[in-house]
Design a protein that fits this description.
Elements lengths: L1 H47 L3 E5 L16 E5 L16 E5 L6 E5 L6 E3 L11 E7 L8 E5 L5 E4 L4
Antiparallel strand pairs: 1-2, 1-5, 2-3, 4-6, 6-7, 7-8
């Protein structure tokens, strides 16, 4: 009985800390996934010598617009560099699709129009800077991660400053 009581006490103390670790790992994992998409877009822009854009997409084919990336994102070659792709736009090939991007976090951005474009030089089009925020659902701000995009286009994962 004493052993069982000790195990119950340890489990009661350990479960909340494991939950925090799991939420933190989810946020970091999803931020890393976003960075990999950004890196793909940047390298494809240089390789193809064309503008490549990342945008939110609910259907996996066209840009949804807005700041919510949780429903999914697409990476595509932006032939007419306007930062938008319609689902019938065969001239602008899709490079990568992820639907849905997250089921355990809210992913938002402050990028203009919710899109991120890279020029053929590997820099953000129009020297865009911004932040993509990954917030685990039903959580406090302690596990939030930000993917900051510099003017040169380099992504960096960090905790938000408090």
């Amino acid at each position: 009985m004493v052993t069982i009581a000790v195990l119950v006490i340890l489990a009661t103390v350990a479960v909340p800390s494991f939950t925090a670790v799991i939420r933190s790992n989810r946020a970091v994992s999803e931020a890393n996934q976003i960075v990999s998409f950004i890196t793909l877009a940047r390298s494809e822009a240089v390789r193809r010598n064309r503008t490549v854009t990342i945008c939110p997409s609910a259907d996996g084919a066209s840009c949804a617009g807005g700041a919510d990336w949780s429903a999914g994102i697409v990476v595509f070659v932006d032939i007419d560099p306007i930062g938008e792709r319609s689902d019938d736009d065969a001239a602008e090939p899709l490079l990568q699709v992820l639907q849905p991007l997250s089921t355990v976090s809210t992913i938002t951005t402050n990028l203009t129009g919710g899109t991120l474009s890279y020029s053929a030089a590997g820099r953000t089009a129009r020297r865009t800077m911004g932040t993509i925020t990954v917030s685990p659902l039903a959580d406090s701000d302690q596990h939030v991660r930000e993917v900051k995009i510099s003017a040169s286009g380099r992504p960096l994962i960090s905790k938000p400053s408090t």
